[in-house]
C-alpha cells in the first residue's frame, strides 16, 4: 500500500469536537470509555464524518470497566454513522457472541493489540498481525518503543503485512516511537491517528492538524 492510500482519524471522547476534524480527517474515532453517556452522544451525532468506535478496558489503555462494556460496543455498531468498530484481539478471540453481533452490522472490524510495556520481537509482531487478520478487516498494533530498533521492527512488520495485502495500522508509544505516527503510512499503515484536541491524550501525541500538515509535507518531499 502506498502512502497515498492512508486515511486520517481524529481521536476524541467528546463528539461535539468532531466539527474541528472536518476538512482534515477522514474519520473520527470516538473513545467511548472516556465519555459519560456514549450511546446518547452517538444518538445525537449529526456531523458528516463517519465514526470509528472503541471502548477500551484498562488493560488496553482505556478506562472502561468490564460491566456492559461489550454490550455498549455492540449497541454502537448499530448506529448509522459508525463505519468501523475497534475491538481488542483478546476480546474478540474470547467472545464469540460479540463477533457474531458485530458481523451482523454493516461495519468494518478493526482488531487491535496493545502492548504498553514493550515491543515484541518481529516474529511475534508478525504472528499477532496474522491472528488479528483472521478476525478483522484491519489490524491495529500499538506497542511501546524503548529503543530505535523497536520502532524499526514495527515499521518493518507494517511493510511486510501491507505487501501481503493486509490492512494494518498503529504506532509506537514513547518518545522514541513518536515519529511512527507520522511515517507509519509510508511503510504501509492504512490509518494515521491523532487527537482532535492537542492536549487530549498524552505528551507523545501529535494533534490532528499538525499531523495532517506533516504527512502532506513528507509526501511532497518524497
Automatic annotation (TrEMBL):
Keywords: Lyase, Schiff base. This is 3-dehydroquinate dehydratase. GO terms for molecular function: 3-dehydroquinate dehydratase activity. It is an enzyme of class 4 (lyase). Its EC number is 4.2.1.10. It catalyses: 3-dehydroquinate = 3-dehydroshikimate + H2O. SUPFAM superfamilies: Aldolase. PANTHER family: 3-DEHYDROQUINATE DEHYDRATASE. It comes from the Archaea. GO terms for biological process: 3,4-dihydroxybenzoate biosynthetic process.
